[in-house]
């Protein structure tokens, strides 16, 4: 189940600063509530002693109308969302962090936590069976499978 989340996140790799920032707004918010607003983030950054930043400036960044923020603004946004500043500049880091954020976001659902916790400690064969069952249910619901995240052992050709 978590593999499928990681595959979905890997497929949706944000590439621009605006994409990456919007991805954080979409995924990084407290369970049970919607995404933060631009002004809410700007106010929180200022209250935490960060640089002067406005909700309008964040809106420009999210729309791609500004794409060269200061290092202080990048650091403040990264700190607010709990990611390293490299997330905004390094596509490989952004991809890896994006997948991790997807897993963390999925784990906000108490039912997903229940499944994961109950699966802990099971044998490899039992875990494989559970993954097969989850994949079949995902098929029934029209959701993508997690097959790409599971890698078969590579066989070298002689």
UniProtKB/TrEMBL annotation:
Residues 53-88 form the HTH cro/C1-type domain. InterPro entries: Cro/C1-type_HTH, Lambda_DNA-bd_dom_sf. This is XRE family transcriptional regulator. It comes from Sphaerisporangium dianthi.
């Amino acid at each position: 189940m978590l593999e499928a989340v990681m595959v979905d996140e890997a497929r949706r790799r944000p590439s621009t600063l605006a994409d990456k920032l919007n991805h954080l707004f979409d995924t990084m918010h407290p369970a049970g509530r919607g995404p933060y607003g631009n002004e809410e983030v700007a106010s929180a950054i200022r209250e935490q002693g960060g640089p002067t930043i406005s909700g309008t400036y964040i809106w420009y960044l999210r729309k791609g109308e500004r794409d060269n923020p200061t290092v202080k603004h990048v650091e403040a946004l990264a700190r607010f969302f709990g990611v390293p500043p490299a997330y905004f500049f390094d596509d490989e880091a952004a991809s890896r962090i994006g997948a991790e954020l997807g897993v963390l976001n999925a784990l906000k659902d108490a039912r997903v936590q229940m499944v994961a916790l109950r699966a802990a400690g099971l044998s490899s064969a039992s875990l494989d069976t559970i993954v097969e069952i989850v994949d079949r249910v995902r098929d029934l619901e029209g959701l993508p499978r997690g097959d790409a995240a599971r890698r078969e052992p590579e066989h070298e050709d002689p």
